[in-house]
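G., the chain you wanted modeled:
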Amino acid sequence: MSLPVLPAQPPGTPYPTDGWPRAEPPAALTSALQPFLETAFEHGVEGELGETHALLIVREGKLIIERYGCGYGPADTRPSWSMAKSMTHALAGMMVADTGFDIHAPLRAQEWSAADDPRSAITLDHLMRMSSGLTFIEEYQAGHPSHVLEMLYGAGKADTAAYAASLPLLHAPGTVWSYASGTTNIISRRISEHVGGGREACGRFMTDRLFAPLGMTSAVPKFDAAGVFIGSSYCFCTPQDFARFGLLYLRGGLWDGRRLLPASWVDYARTPTPQPPEAALGYGAHWWLSLGGPGSFSANGFEGQFIVCLPESDTLIVRSGRTPLANREALASWMKALSGTLTTV
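Predicted structure as tokens:
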């Protein structure tokens, strides 16, 4: 399938490594955005979106909207939750570029070392596309069976990758899509092995190859006791730094004349993975598809964290907040309508 062309940085617009270039939105866009801002910030925490802590809109590489609520400001870091999965995608792309690692070859995790273990057929591609076949219950409500809560807060918290990789196979690898945070931590462990293992080596790799080149000075990744980045869930950043990360993907892996990610790896992120017909959103490889309409792709996190890339209008949205699970459909509808407005106005 053909993917929408990603926009180049407009000539004369500096990259926001040291600070975001800014511009006032056109009057028509300001007027069109007002209802969305009112819904996000003026209805209080009891509104349909719950708490909105930040909303940033970047168009053509310039920050045109920056609003904060609930006592938060530009210097406050916010949780990534599962937006960290998309950061793990970037780190994996750097590993693949460094080594020529075959994403379609067996990953050879230590838990699957036996020749007759059916899990030994799992590849990096299967994990990236949430199609590993491993058993994993992605449930966030306390009191319900949940592998993700057990991995992050229970028996698996000291070694998140080992916990996830030790789970049995439920489906043949590559046959069933099922969103599973554990698969990301297995990937994260493989990246850690590539860079030498341990928190220090992995942290240095993340800083040298991703955070520092983009100017993401606020980024604070969280590691488990085994020294592996908990790539499923934890990288704290300011909203401006989340926007920097999103812009790297909107620019196809280029940053100020330097290629940080292969263009093919960014395309891989937004190439659809087969999913059940009832799936509400499309999925690529550790990035979601279509939240902002056709051609859009996004990093999505628990309680309504979003980095939404809109290639058609060269626009980027960052939303940070705390939206109850009961309100997530209202937030998704608001985000889709906002994206549509930004694409057409």
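The CA atoms of residues 137 and 144 lie 10 Å apart.

Shout if anything looks off.
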